[in-house]
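haha ok so turns out i had the wrong file open the whole time. this is the CORRECT one, sorry everyone. sequence first:
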Amino acid sequence: GNNNLVQQALNSYGIKMQTLSLDLVNDSTIYIDGRMYGLEAFEMKIDTIDLDVNQRNKYLTYKFHAGSAPGTNDEFAQVTIKGGVRGNQLGILLDQQNIRGEQGFKLGLDAVLGDTVINMKVFPKNPVIGYRKWSVNEDNIVEYNYIKNLINANLDLKCDSSYVKVTANHKEFRERNAQDVKLNIGGVQIAEWVKVSPFIPPMSGVFSADMKMVYNGKHLLGRGETHLDNFKFNRKPVGNFDLDLGLALDPETNLVRLVTSFDVDGKKAIRLRGMLNDTTSKDEFNFKLNVDSFPLKIANPFIPGNMANLQGLLYGEMDMRGSLLRPILSG
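then structure:
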């Protein structure tokens, strides 16, 4: 019916649909066949949604597809997420095309959960991200040893002047308890990556980062910087941002020491330094915040409906200590 219990429950969350059908079999094998038509949710419309799950011996395959007619959701006209599960192995592939049949995304991940290590691999060799064809090294791998809390990585993803590179003790992963982890990102166009979701507002800018973490068997030390140039939100200019970060972690006590600075359009805006989880103090955290010159105008693009137009600079300093439930702020 048009007013069944499922529709009533979805309507309470602002979700509407025209038709829903579902076949579910769980005998010697698993079989699921679902269809939904005319979905409206969160200011988005989808004409058809299909879900297929089939078990073939020990291999379970799944496929989710959302399709829309012209004028409904043209950027995400055809979206398919498919893959399979076999024992401790999982595969997933995202395939998205717009109404003109142009490939927006084709990116997959294979994962294996072992007794001590989670192993992940990106495929295909030339994935499509944000309508651009990238390349990834065939021997790419990202492993996490959740017993020793160590990372092994060799991932090199690139397209023209854009790149994402992660390296971490590729050859010495199982031979020692110390490691270096490096993350290098350059020339990444934010607009291309956020297109993966219709729920993310339009954003653009060029993102880059250089991060390095060193674990010497006792302490974790991290240092790095990130840059976001020509950032726009909802097609409105926001600014250029630079973040410099340094931290030190003692795994035995969970004590974190943090030093960071945030620049806006090349000028110092915010500085923060202090400690978190200090067991020698009655305070869970103790930070010093300095606001040197924070331009209020960068908040304007995030204010809906142009309800306000902020101008000027914010200055000040503040001491923050105590706990999350009972913070003590002074300044």
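The mean pLDDT is 86.
again sry for the mixup
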